Amino acid sequence: MKTIRLTAAQAMVKWLAAQKTPAGDSFIAGCWAIFGHGNVAGLGEALYHVQDVLPTYRGHNEQTMAHTAIAYAKQNRRDRAMMVTSSIGPGATNMVTACALAYVNRLPVLFVPGDVFAHRGPDPVLQQPENFADGTVTATDTFRPVSRYFDRITRPEQLLTALPRALRTMTDPADCGPAVLAFCQDVQAEAYDWPVAFFDEKVWRRREPQPDPVEVAAVAALLRDAKHPVIVAGGGVLYGRAEAALAGAEKELERLEIKASFAGLLESDTAELGSLLQPGGLCATVIQLDPIKLVGYAPEAQVGRIEVGALAGARLSDGRELRGRVTFLSRRADDTTRTFRLEIEVPNADLSVRDGQTAELLIASDGAKAHLLPQSTLTLNDDGVLGVRLVGDGNLTVFAPVQLLRDTVQGVWVTGLPDAADVITVGQEYVVEGVEVAPSFKEPM
What are the pLDDT digits (tens) for 146-155? Predict the structure, then answer.
């Protein structure tokens, strides 16, 4: 077996630098450190030589640098983590609160606090708590209740099993959390012949175990039978990248409650309680009557005079009149009638106007001077132009082209004539332009 001689601290950082994520990044992105006599000679020296692949960040407070490592792991959705090291005694216990935070939130952080001399040459060592009833107690024992994996390294070769166990815990989907390797300060500097294969690159992939189908069915039954189901989603959804699946589940739950997209009146209820409905099937009819929408069609000749927002009115078959504004005017003509759909919105607070009633629509537009004439006065000249015949100077007949504005029961409204004109209403078809006539007059319409 091929070996390489390194100190225990050198072996630790060399092994950590070889641990990768499926994306090819180092799983341990860096090390936060405050150096003291408990870690400077061992880990401090080892970290210095690998700073190109495992950078060291100097902290000024043990707890805050541990909280920073926690935030890094959370921001990276537990795909990457950081290492935190401090000296023995108060330097180590300052990180216990942060370790507890990582523990309860199942966030991966590798804590490597310095520890006592394993061979107990100096005993007690500086900042070591003395316990005269138990010689094995050290300050790092405070990490035991708040760590997912704890080990005290008293021999270099213990790292051969302790490091993989720590990383396995930090990448486990259920048991993920802080791993603590209390590193005796004399052991950090002890040399050992390490198997070269121990430092081969390894990719850590987080397992994705599927949920138990029986438990899933039980939860589904609870949600299905609940009147107001609520899903409380925690970090498992985030770290499992299940946000899209959760959003889909929420949409499915929303479909259990049928809602209208607007407030209105229930006109008909076609579905019975317990009926099986297909997506898109009719279950009820809801109508909105306030404001009510009046729909009509404008002819090609008039559509250019209508604008969205114009004042409009309607006269119902029972004589009632309504007021509103144009809210829609189609830009595409109906293929059959060549008319343009328009919509008018009218207040209907008392709901007196019902859906489907017939109405005559009136829309305000720019005014124009016009004459009201009998329909019989309209004629065509030899060129097919619509107009009327007038009595001009010297009682000579004149043809005047007109434009038809509106056809009513009382007559037709036309434009194109002067303000005062003598229109021939009887016998206009028996004369041609330029013929002298003897007109007789009647009262205008």
Answer: 999 999 999 9
The listed range with the strongest mean pLDDT (4-13, 296-305, 322-331) is 4-13
d(CA 191, CA 194): 9
- Domain range summary for the chain, segments of one domain joined by +: 3-203, 213-254, 292-363, 371-430
Q: What is the rounded CA–CA span in Å between residue 330 and residue 314?
A: 19
Q: Which CATH number fits domain 371-430: 2.40.420.20, 1.10.3720.10, 1.10.10.60, 1.10.240.10?
A: 2.40.420.20
User: Residue type at 378?
Assistant: L
State the residue for tokens 């604008």: 307
Q: Quick one: which of 233, 242, 136 has its CA closest to 182?
A: 136
Q: What is the pLDDT of residues 341-368, one digit of tens each?
A: 988 888 877 877 888 788 888 787 776 7
**Pairing relation of β-strands 412-415 and 371-373?**
antiparallel
- CA–CA gap between residue 77 and residue 85 (Å, rounded): 22
Tally Cβ neighbours within 10 Å of residue 390. 19
Supply the CATH classification number for the domain 3-203: 3.40.50.970
Q: Return the pLDDT at 130.
A: 66
Whose structure tokens read 């490592």?
A: 69
C-beta atoms surrounding 150 within 10 Å: 21
> In residues, how long is the chain?
445
Using a cut of 0.90, tell me whether the model's pTM lies above it.
no
User: Sign (positive/negative) of CA torsion 265, 269, 271, 273?
Assistant: positive
Q: Are 372 and 413 in contact (CB under 8 A)?
A: yes
H helices of 292-431, in order, are 300-303
| Domain 292-363: CATH superfamily, name plus number | Efflux pump adaptor protein, beta barrel domain (2.40.30.170)
Pairing of strands 359-363, 284-287: unpaired
